[in-house]
Amino acid sequence: MGKTSNIQTVLILGASNKPHRYTFKVQQLLKQHGHRIIPVHLKMTEIEGIKVNNSLAEITESVDTLSLYIGAQRS
Hints:
Distance between the termini: 47 Å
Strand content: 15-25%
Radius of gyration: 13 Å
Structural class: alpha/beta
Number of strands: 5
CATH architecture: 3-Layer(aba) Sandwich
CATH class: Alpha Beta
Shape: globular
Oligomer: single chain
Strand order of the largest sheet: 2-1-5
Mean pLDDT: 89
CATH superfamily: NAD(P)-binding Rossmann-like Domain
Number of helices: 1
Low-confidence stretches: none
Helix content: 10-25%
Order of helices and strands: EHEEEE
Number of domains: 1
């Protein structure tokens, strides 16, 4: 019987390239554990060599988990 992979694709809505932000820390942890991340941010184009999608409409692949981050001023 083959080994089942638990690697997931995680979409990060509200991705950030700022190391002090929780979303950046989560991106790092997910990558360290071998997960594939899909960052989404309205204005960014790349975070640490990973292409950033500017809208959800750009996502054409299957996603296992959505992680959402919004600033306190918007909550």
